[in-house]
Amino acid sequence: MGLFVLSLLLWAIPVADAQGQEPRYSTGGTCDFSGLPGVVCFGTGRRMPIQRLASYVAPVYWFSPDEPLLEQAEGDSIRIPEALPFETAPDRPVVYYQFDNFLVAEDQRETAYARDVADPGNSMIDLEVTGAFTLHFFAYFSSEVGLGAHQHDLEAAEFKVVVARSSGEWVRENTDAQCGEQTYVVLVTRVSAKAHGIIWFWNVIDTDEETRFPMHILVEEGKHGLATDKNGDGYFTPGYDVSRHINDAWGGRDWRGAVTTIPMCRTSSTSCGHCRRPSWGPTTGASTTSWRRRRFQVGPRSTRASRCRTCSTGWTRARWSSRWRSR
Predict the structure, then answer these.
(1) Could you tell me the residue range of the domain that residue 181 belongs to?
(2) Does residue 5 sit within a domain?
(3) Average pLDDT over the chain, rounded to whole?
(4) 16, part of any domain
(5) Is 57 exposed, middle or buried (0-12, 13-18, 19+ CB in 10 A)?
(6) In this predicted model, what pLDDT tens digit does every residue of 19-53 receive, in sequence order?
(7) Domain count, the chain
(8) Distance between CA atoms of 279 and 154, rounded to whole angstroms?
């Protein structure tokens, strides 16, 4: 995997307006970065396996209960997204991932990425060297229904990710964090749900204070186009759940042609993002059809199937760590 130096404009995150100003984000003088917009994890470990890092960033996928491939499955019985047809199918959903476009300083001598040929999922990213990267997630469906239906449907979501350091200028100028040792903060700045692979239709959201992670991705019934759900409430709201090209953004539409809006799944148990035996909210909307959704989160897959994992020693999953457990 090559290293690429990208325009910093792609990775812009807010900075303080003036010297001596109150910090934009307060940590209470601690080393807790949970309150930063877009943060997915932070910790002291300089190097991290890509499989673990991808699991920290991984989205939650929501399906309509009328999704044909779902076959009325719920919770742990869900088997979509699927493994690619040339791979052995595990007994759980599968999402694939790909790291791309690493940003490093031009004068940096060390490598940001060290490949493990024997176990690619254990390849290491050096967070001291890495400034930013792109992480893609791919969901495969063996078929779809509706206009232009075809076999082998692959839907993608793209995450722009930056790595901040406690000793770095951005953290010093925008927070009051006090860390006893170098701490690395991984933040998502933009998510693009690439609905049907057509750039005009992409649902793109830039991270702000109201954006919640893990990002919730709404999966269109039958056609599987992906849409961002900024606050994880289960509804796609034009002008809120997308922040770029709002008039062109596809949103989510089921295969019968109706716009899909979805009430939130409410449950007290959300292990790995699954709704286990959920009790659903209202199923009717004020002006359009509303669909109840089923959701789950899967850890990404490289050469071996993997589910979500807990943080390693020295790392903290931001804000929603109690919703996860190892599997």
Answers:
(1) 23-323
(2) no
(3) 75
(4) no
(5) buried
(6) 557 788 888 889 999 999 999 999 999 999 999 99
(7) 1
(8) 30
